[in-house]
From TrEMBL:
One of its GO terms (biological process) is positive regulation of proteasomal ubiquitin-dependent protein catabolic process. Residues 68-315 form the Protein kinase domain. Residues 41-52 have a biased composition (Pro residues). Its main location: nucleus. Keywords: Apoptosis, Nucleus, Protein kinase inhibitor, Transcription, Transcription regulation. It comes from the Eukaryota. Interacts with AKT1, AKT2, MAP2K1 and MAP2K7. Interacts with ATF4. Interacts with DDIT3/CHOP and inhibits its interaction with EP300/P300. Interacts with APOBEC3C. Interacts (via N-terminus) with APOBEC3A. Interacts with RELA. Belongs to the protein kinase superfamily. CAMK Ser/Thr protein kinase family. Tribbles subfamily. Inactive protein kinase which acts as a regulator of the integrated stress response (ISR), a process for adaptation to various stress. Inhibits the transcriptional activity of DDIT3/CHOP and is involved in DDIT3/CHOP-dependent cell death during ER stress. May play a role in programmed neuronal cell death but does not appear to affect non-neuronal cells. Acts as a negative feedback regulator of the ATF4-dependent transcription during the ISR: while TRIB3 expression is promoted by ATF4, TRIB3 protein interacts with ATF4 and inhibits ATF4 transcription activity. This is Tribbles homolog 3. The keyword Ribosomal protein does not apply. InterPro entries: Kinase-like_dom_sf (IPR011009), Prot_kinase_dom (IPR000719), Tribbles/Ser_Thr_kinase_40 (IPR024104). It is found in: Nucleus.
């Protein structure tokens, strides 16, 4: 078995999916690759309706301790088709993502479309067998979700440094015709032990656009990160604007230590998301509050673009030190408080937007 670079033909169709019911919102992966994701950490959890088990797509699961060229697959992550792998010549550990061979072109197409970027992880090597494709990624040093869960929330200066990298990643993908869709904190991983540099772990579920139109019609997402337009009865929605909403949820969670919209019952959770009312934690600086509100706007056309996020004052190189926080108020995971009515939130948001011109 050898590394086989697969060139993706230009005629490969976009991976857009058909509109599904609201009950099919999935925290793991869309239907075709449900088995590929790892277990969801709890921050608390993304609540979701139960989904029926799916049959394997093209090939049976891979057994651990398999020898693949210079690599040995070690134990898999629980409930996942992601394996720890050891590169025998160098004793270096990798993460191996295993896909059915019949999905090879679709899996590799986003990497073919996207120019290299410092904050998007790419396979170090790809091996193709008769039944499976094996993509080997450098082993990360944890992910953003786990960091926020452990620390409860991040100070503004640290959050701004990390979020700037996340926004740059999204802007790069959007610029080159990729919509990420399943965007959440868990997908951003650290490449250094100090946890100062983040990269997008892979391009799974990225939708390759065929033109300037970014309309999508699927309804697959992690419930805590899903935008209100996806929960509506609209036949389609802007994929780029939905990514920006998810990034806004990630920023709120980094600063507050809990999701902006939260409930143990999916129906109640989706109702809160549709209303779009949330309460920011006390002590945040005015620019930070402004940016969160610019991302979490119910109307997709009113949100900042990914490239526009990078121009926001909160993400400039010399970030103003934040106001003193009352962190003791946020030491436990909380359901989002009722807070002011939606009209008050909208009016307050309009005042903060003045900070950003």
């Amino acid at each position: 078995m050898r590394a086989t670079p697969l060139a993706v033909p230009k005629g490969v169709p976009s991976r857009k999916k058909q509109l599904d019911s609201d009950d099919d919102l999935d925290t793991e992966r869309p239907t075709r690759k449900q088995a590929l994701s790892g277990p969801q950490p709890r921050l608390p959890p993304c609540p979701l309706p139960p989904s029926p088990p799916r049959a394997p797509v093209c090939a049976p699961a891979v057994t651990a301790a398999s020898r693949l060229g210079p690599y040995v697959l070690l134990e898999p992550e629980e409930g996942s088709r992601t394996y720890r792998a050891l590169h025998c010549p160098t004793s270096t550990e990798y993460i191996c993502k295993v896909y059915p061979a019949c999905e090879a072109l679709a899996v590799l197409e986003p990497y073919s479309r996207l120019p290299r970027h410092g904050h998007v992880a790419r396979p170090a090597e790809v091996l193709v067998g008769p039944q499976h494709l094996y993509a080997f990624f450098p082993r990360p040093h944890g992910d953003m979700h786990s960091l926020v869960r452990r620390r409860r929330h991040l100070p503004e200066l640290e959050a701004a440094a990390l979020f700037r990298q996340m926004a740059a990643t999204l802007a790069h993908c959007h610029q080159h015709g990729l919509v990420l869709r399943d965007l959440k904190l868990q997908r951003f991983v650290f490449t250094d032990r100090e946890r100062t540099k983040v990269v997008l772990e892979n391009l799974e579920d990225a939708c390759v656009l065929t033109g300037s139109d970014d309309s999508l019609c699927d309804k697959h997402a992690c419930p805590a990160y899903v935008g209100p337009e996806i929960l509506s009865s609209r036949a389609s929605y802007s994929g780029k604007a939905a990514d920006v909403w998810s990034l806004g949820v990630a920023l709120f969670t980094m600063l507050a230590g809990h999701y902006p919209f939260q409930d143990s019952e999916p129906i109640l959770l989706f109702g809160k998301i549709r209303r779009g009312a949330f309460a920011l934690p006390e002590g945040l600086s005015a620019p930070a509050r402004c940016l969160v509100r610019c991302l979490l706007r119910r109307e997709p056309t009113e949100r900042l673009t990914a490239s526009g996020i990078l121009l926001h004052p909160w993400l400039r190189e010399n970030v103003i030190p934040p106001a003193p926080t009352r962190s003791h108020l946020w030491e436990a995971d909380q359901v989002v408080p009722e807070g002011p009515g939606l009209e008050e939130v909208e009016e307050e948001g309009e005042r903060d937007v003045g900070l950003y011109g």
